[in-house]
Every structure is written in structure tokens, then in C-alpha cells.
Design brief:
Blueprint: E1 2-6, H1 11-22, E2 26-31, H2 34-43, E3 46-49, H3 55-62, E4 67-70, H4 81-102, E5 106-110, E6 123-126, H5 139-152, E7 160-166, E8 169-170, H6 175-185, E9 191-192, E10 198-199, E11 202-203, H7 204-215, E12 222-226, E13 232-233, H8 234-244, E14 253-254, H9 256-272, H10 283-289, E15 293-295, H11 298-304, H12 312-326
Parallel strand pairs: 1-2, 1-4, 2-3, 4-5, 5-7, 6-15, 7-12, 8-11, 9-14
Antiparallel strand pairs: 10-13
Length: about 325
């Protein structure tokens, strides 16, 4: 297939790029700089360096594409609201409009399972029919809901639209490598209420597998949850992930009710006072990681043939092996 991919230099997008190239697809990747273009082209894909504000050029770039995979976006939970507005909502709208004009056959949006989250409470075995919520204190989730609505509005056009909602995507280069692991090493990451609650995760390998099924899907306007085969205790999962990456495992815990109040306090402080940097905790962090959350993948199984074939154990081993390889150490020498 001819695929146009956004977010190809990010965590999820870079793995999607590698997976699609391995499947023999031809890819054009939206990038922001010549340095990013060099990275993309070194992998064997074509880079398109331009601005999505230039709608006419974007339409030309999308001409002849079979699929547009939209994996770009902002997930900096402590970042400014305007970043979510621009990167998640406005960008999605521009891509949908351009893809429709260009005659792209299919638009696949990488969303998030957390869209069904709202009040601070457990959610178990959530299906795609659960209501989504717009809450100002959950700006990332709010932006993804609005982006989804933009995509779904095009479901009756000639372009087929599919939405994948993965749960806590993990793998080499994930949020643990970028944020959580380093914070844990500094003593700035701990558990919410001991972290002993069921939690849905999704290895990047499983997400790529679901994406391959979505690209063959012939219907439009459908949403699919994607996760690893079985839920796992949040603390057990995160401990394994931290250890696989060589990060410190925290021992302290904060009651989630206290963490929620602290999040609200710091949000107000950074909103109304000239505080440096970013708030150390916000309510969306607590909501996303501090409560039991599991999803049903029955629809993806029945309609996409998705079986979550990659185990958590195998994924952790791959991360540990990757870390050793970067250090120049053979995994066999550790046995």
C-alpha cells in the first residue's frame, strides 16, 4: 500500500514506520525539519517536509495514497492547553480535510482508550460503546475526544475512517524511557495508593499488529480498543518495565485522593502565578495511572482478527536486550 504517516519520528510513529516498511508498504512521512527527513529517508521511506498550514500542498502530497495513518500529537500532560489544541485538534482537522479532498481511501487515527475516563473512579472492561467525556481538568483526553469527533464526522464520505484506541502503549522509547524512568531515578515517581489495581497495557508490537488488521478493514466509522491480552496489576507491570529499562523502582506511595488534590493545587499555581517549568503533578496524570482501568478487545478480535499475539514477558525481554545492545553487551553474556 501507499501510506502517508504522521508522527514518524515519535515513539508510536517510529515503530509504525518500521513495521509498515517490514510489511513491504511504501511510506511518505510528514516531518518538520531536514534533520527529521534524513532520519526517515535513512530507513527507506520518503519524507515530506512542509507545514500542514499549507493545505493545498498537503492535498497534493496526499494524492494517490491508500491510507493516511495519523499517529502525531501532543501527550505532554503538564504542557500548555494550546499545545493540545494545535497538535491534537487543529492538526487532525487539517489532515481529515486534506485527505478527503485528495481522495485518500482510508484514514486511521491512533487515539487513546482513556477517552472513556472522567471522574476519578475505577473502570473495568470498558467497551467502545462507553461514553466519552470532555473535562477541562483532563486537557489531553479532551483534545483526543474532539480529534476523534473530527475523524468520525468524515465516516460517510468516500474515505473510510477507522479509530484505534490503545491502552498505555509501551516499548522501547516509550513514556517510561522519556519521562517516568528518569523521574524515578531522581526519586520523583511513586505509586498511587500502592499501585495494586488491574490495568490495561498495550505493547507497541501489539498496536502495530492491530494496525495491519485495520488497514485491511473494509468498513468505515468504527472504533477498536487495543490492549495486551490480559490486564496486569499496575505496580507489577511498571516494576517490570522499570527494571527492564534499568531504572530505579520506587518504594514510596501517595494516597490517590491526596495526589488528586495536589494535582489541582499545582494546576492552579502554574495557571495563575509566574511559576517556572512545568507542574510536577496534574490531575490527568493521577487519572491515567492511579485507578483500575481495563478494556474489552472483543470487537477488535472479531472484526480485525486481532489476537494480541505479543506477550508482556516477550516485550520486556526485548526492551532489556535492546538496552544491553546499546551498551555493547551481548544478552548471552548475561545468562
Amino acid at each position: 500500500m501507499k501510506i502517508f504517516l504522521t508522527g514518524a519520528t515519535g515513539f508510536i510513529g517510529s515503530h509504525i514506520l518500521d513495521s509498515c516498511l517490514a510489511q513491504g508498504h511504501s511510506l511518505v512521512c510528514l516531518v518538520r525539519s531536514s534533520a527529521q527527513a534524513n532520519l526517515i529517508e535513512a530507513k527507506g521511506a520518503q519524507a515530506w517536509v512542509s507545514s500542514t498550514n499549507d493545505q493545498s500542498s498537503l492535498v497534493k502530497a496526499l494524492a494517490g495514497m491508500d491510507v493516511l495513518i495519523h499517529a502525531a500529537g501532543c501527550r505532554d500532560l503538564a504542557g500548555p492547553v494550546l499545545a493540545f489544541e494545535h497538535s491534537n485538534i487543529d492538526l487532525t482537522r487539517s489532515l481529515v480535510e486534506a485527505a478527503t479532498q485528495a481522495g485518500v481511501k482510508q484514514f486511521i487515527y491512533i487515539s487513546a482508550a482513556s477517552l472513556v475516563m472522567s471522574e476519578p473512579m475505577p473502570i473495568l472492561n470498558a467497551t467502545e460503546s462507553y461514553p466519552v467525556h470532555i473535562r477541562d481538568y483532563l486537557p489531553y483526553t479532551r483534545s483526543k475526544v474532539l480529534a476523534e469527533q473530527t475523524v468520525l464526522a468524515a465516516k460517510n464520505s468516500a474515505m473510510r475512517v477507522v479509530i484505534l484506541r490503545p491502552s498505555f502503549v509501551w516499548g522501547n522509547g516509550d513514556s517510561v524511557d522519556r519521562e517516568i524512568g528518569p523521574a524515578s531515578n531522581r526519586g520523583q515517581f511513586g505509586w498511587f495508593s500502592q499501585g495494586r489495581y488491574p490495568f490495561a497495557t498495550c505493547s507497541i508490537a501489539n498496536l502495530c499488529d492491530a494496525l495491519q488488521g485495520a488497514m485491511l478493514y473494509s468498513q468505515s466509522g468504527h472504533i477498536f480498543n487495543v490492549s495486551d491480552r490480559e490486564p496486569i496489576e499496575f505496580r507489577a507491570f511498571m516494576q517490570q518495565r522499570l527494571e527492564a529499562g534499568g531504572y530505579r523502582v520506587p518504594t514510596f506511595s501517595v494516597p490517590r485522593a491526596l495526589a488528586w488534590r495536589l494535582g489541582a493545587f499545582t494546576e492552579n499555581g502554574w495557571k495563575y502565578l509566574p511559576m517556572p517549568g512545568k507542574p510536577p503533578i496534574v490531575r490527568e496524570m493521577v487519572r491515567l495511572m492511579g485507578f483500575a482501568f481495563t478494556v474489552s478487545i472483543e470487537r477488535a478480535n472479531h472484526e480485525l482478527g486481532y489476537t494480541a499475539p505479543h506477550s508482556i514477558t516477550a516485550g520486556m525481554q526485548a526492551i532489556a536486550s535492546h538496552k544491553l545492545a546499546k551498551q555493547g553487551i551481548s544478552p548471552k553474556s548475561q545468562q
